[in-house]
TrEMBL record:
Pfam families: Sigma70_r2 (PF04542), Sigma70_r4 (PF04545). Gene3D superfamilies: 1.10.1740.10, Winged helix-like DNA-binding domain superfamily/Winged helix DNA-binding domain. This is Sigma-70 family RNA polymerase sigma factor. It comes from Arthrobacter sulfonylureivorans. Keywords: DNA-binding, Sigma factor, Transcription, Transcription regulation. Belongs to the sigma-70 factor family. ECF subfamily. Residues 11-76, 106-154 form the RNA polymerase sigma-70 region domain. PANTHER family: ECF RNA POLYMERASE SIGMA FACTOR SIGL, RNA POLYMERASE ECF-TYPE SIGMA FACTO. InterPro entries: RNA_pol_sigma-70-like, RNA_pol_sigma-70_dom, RNA_pol_sigma70_r2, RNA_pol_sigma70_r4, RNA_pol_sigma_r2, RNA_pol_sigma_r3/r4-like, WH-like_DNA-bd_sf.
Length: 165
């Protein structure tokens, strides 16, 4: 196996599963999912970017591959293999999807206690008192954990390169 083959294989091993999950959320066509993942890996490998946030760069590239495929299908509807029966997905939807995948990954990297507080307060939209009751912890603990959870999440997002230009 050449160095180039090994680099592509390593990129695929490390990121293909997360990319599949990201692409699968945008399309239900299994053939398209694998095509987009492979095209994304190849595009990123050819460019050889030096980035601390490879996963984010891969997601952004996958987004472009999906949009390119949609545009090709729009211009040439007779082309097969891209799931003609699927509804068109707007760029907004990809941005929301990308944000959701990035947030899921970031939340998975923080402690369970911090994740539970963020989910309760920001996703379930519970008040601090409701979160305390739901989680079975004192109100003061909810407030303290909320502060440290936000700090931990911000740190993880910074590590992932989110919000950095």
């Amino acid at each position: 196996m050449s160095l180039d083959d090994e680099a592509v294989a390593r990129l695929y091993r490390e990121h293909a599963t997360a990319l599949r999950r990201f692409v699968r959320a945008a399309t239900s066509n299994a053939d398209q999912v694998e095509d987009v993942v492979q095209e994304t890996i190849l595009r990123v490998w050819k460019r050889g970017p030096e980035t601390e946030n490879m996963r984010g760069y891969l997601y952004q590239t996958a987004r472009h591959v999906i949009i390119d495929g949609y545009r090709r299908r729009s211009r040439r509807p007779e082309e097969t293999g891209w799931g003609e029966d699927e509804p068109a997905i707007e760029e907004d939807q990809f941005d929301r999807l990308l944000l959701r995948v990035v947030m899921e990954e970031a939340l998975a990297r923080i402690s369970t206690d911090h994740r539970n507080i963020i989910l309760a307060l920001h996703y379930q939209r519970l008040t601090a008192a409701e979160a305390a009751q739901s989680l079975g912890i004192p109100l003061g603990t909810v407030k303290s954990r909320a502060f440290y959870a936000a700090k931990a999440l911000r740190s993880v997002l910074d590590e992932m390169g989110v919000g950095q230009s």
